[in-house]
């Protein structure tokens, strides 16, 4: 259309405007493509890598946590079983007093092991929440970078159009005007 208008004696100026418009739209399209490449590189590629690494890390961390928790739980169960045996022995004994010190030791050990297990579970929960938060922070940071690129894209496009639009509108302000 720009070529047709440029070849006409009465619309040459408008042909130049149409070429300028096409050039500005091409620049905006190129910026859009750059923004999409940036989106792919800044967010999608890094997310894919992060998911792969996180998946392996979290699997290993979960296994380690479960093994340690099971170990602490088993130690607690063992202590409780020993205390139960000791109490049965003391009930059948003619002198239950001789078992009281041992029973107190088991009660103390159970209390300590329960505390260790509770602390371990509590620390594990805090660690899990921290890891979850770190991952969402990573995602928010990447989304912010994409949003900045998008804002820059729109700002640049707006700037280009705002500069050119008044000139383009002025070129066709009087359709009846014919060049000399």
Q: What's the CATH H-level superfamily name?
A: Arfaptin homology (AH) domain/BAR domain
Provide the gyration radius in Å: 38 Å
> What global shape is seen?
rod-shaped
- CATH architecture annotation name: Up-down Bundle
Major β-sheet, in short?
Answer: none
**What is the CATH T-level topology?**
Substrate Binding Domain Of Dnak, Chain:A, Domain 2
- By CATH reckoning, the class would read Mainly Alpha
Order of helices and strands: HHH
First-last Cα distance: 22 Å
Number of helical stretches of at least 4 residues: 3
Structural class of the helix and strand makeup?
mainly alpha
How many individual β-strands? 0
Percent of residues in helices comes to over 70%
Percent of residues in β-strands: under 5%
- pLDDT averaged over residues: 87
InterPro entries: AH/BAR_dom_sf (IPR027267), I-BAR_dom (IPR013606), IRSp53/IRTKS/Pinkbar (IPR027681)
Protein name: BAIAP2 isoform 19
Organism: Pongo abelii (Sumatran orangutan)
Pfam families: IMD (PF08397)
Structure, briefly:
With 180 residues, the protein is mainly α. It has one domain (1-172): Up-down Bundle (Substrate Binding Domain Of Dnak, Chain:A, Domain 2).
Task: Give an overview in words.
There is one protein chain. With 180 residues, this protein is mainly alpha-helical. The protein has a single domain (1-172), classed as Substrate Binding Domain Of Dnak, Chain:A, Domain 2 (Up-down Bundle), CATH 1.20.1270. The protein has three helices and no strands. Helix 2 runs antiparallel to helix 3. The longest helix has 81 residues, at 12-92. The mean pLDDT is 87.
């Amino acid at each position: 259309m720009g070529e047709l208008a440029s070849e006409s004696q009465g619309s040459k100026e408008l042909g130049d405007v149409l070429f300028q418009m096409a050039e500005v739209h091409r620049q905006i399209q190129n910026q859009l493509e750059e923004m999409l490449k940036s989106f792919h590189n800044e967010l999608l590629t890094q997310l894919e890598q992060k998911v792969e690494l996180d998946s392996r890390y979290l699997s290993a961390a979960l296994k380690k946590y479960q093994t340690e928790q099971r170990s602490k739980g088993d130690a607690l169960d063992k202590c409780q079983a020993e205390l139960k045996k000791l109490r049965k022995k003391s009930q059948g004994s003619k002198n239950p007093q001789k078992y009281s010190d041992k029973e107190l030791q088991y009660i103390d050990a159970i209390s300590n092991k329960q505390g260790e297990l509770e602390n371990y579970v509590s620390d594990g929960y805090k660690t899990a929440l921290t890891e979850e938060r770190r991952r969402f922070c990573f995602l928010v940071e990447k989304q912010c970078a994409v949003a900045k690129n998008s804002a820059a894209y729109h700002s640049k496009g707006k700037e280009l159009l705002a500069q050119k639009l008044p000139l383009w509108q002025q070129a066709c302000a009087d359709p009846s005007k014919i060049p000399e």
